[in-house]
Specification:
This protein has 188 residues and is mostly helical. It contains seven helices and three strands. It has a three-stranded antiparallel sheet with strand order 1-3-2, with helices on one face.
Length: 188
């Protein structure tokens, strides 16, 4: 900003703002920023970065963007209670969950032969995205699932069966944990 650099805070602790002010003699402190005259941006950045790290980080980062992937329902459209086949509930019977997962839309090909020869498209597959967002925490396992799909090694039917086992295990664990704390909700 012309003759001075303005270090602005979105969420820096008060101590970090004060540390920036103390680090630059002649700086002017305001409630949520410090103006530093007579220095280049690179001179200021190095010191501010050190102060930021000393105070837990994230205090003075420049604005950035976030990117989101739409998580479709099992039928490929939006998840909606008006389209029961698009989602499953935490306490939905296993037989119903199985029916929905096994009937889910996929990113596969028209025929099994094409699927094996050309592979699938995991980015357009609600079953793959279910694994990506909820079922697989291990990046290596997820990368292997993607590789097997794209190479045609994994068919959509087999992928659905593997995903169903993950969903069943997830729901069983979640239901157990919810049941274990249900009494707390009743006390409130």
């Amino acid at each position: 900003r012309g003759e001075y650099i303005s270090v602005r805070s979105k969420n820096a602790p008060e101590e970090a703002i004060e540390a920036v002010h103390r680090a630059f003699p002649g700086s002017k402190r305001y409630a949520a920023h410090v103006d530093i005259p007579g220095l280049s941006q690179s001179q200021v950045e190095e010191t501010v970065r050190r102060i930021e790290i000393d105070h837990g980080g994230f205090g003075f980062y420049r604005p950035s963007s976030t990117y989101h992937i739409f998580m479709p329902g099992l039928q490929g459209g939006k998840m909606s209670s008006s389209v029961p086949a698009s989602l499953f509930g935490f306490y939905e019977p296993d037989s119903s969950v199985k029916k929905k997962v096994m009937a889910a839309l996929t990113g596969g090909r028209m025929t099994l032969e094409e699927q094996r020869r050309l592979g699938g498209d995991p980015d357009s597959c609600p079953v793959y995205l279910l694994n990506l967002f909820h079922m697989l925490d291990d990046d290596i396992e997820l990368a292997d699932l993607r590789r097997r799909c794209e190479s045609g090694e994994l068919t959509c039917g087999q992928c659905k069966k593997e995903t169903l086992e993950r969903v069943r295990a997830f729901l069983a664990d979640l239901r157990d944990r919810m049941d274990a704390v249900e009494h707390l909700a009743e006390e409130v």
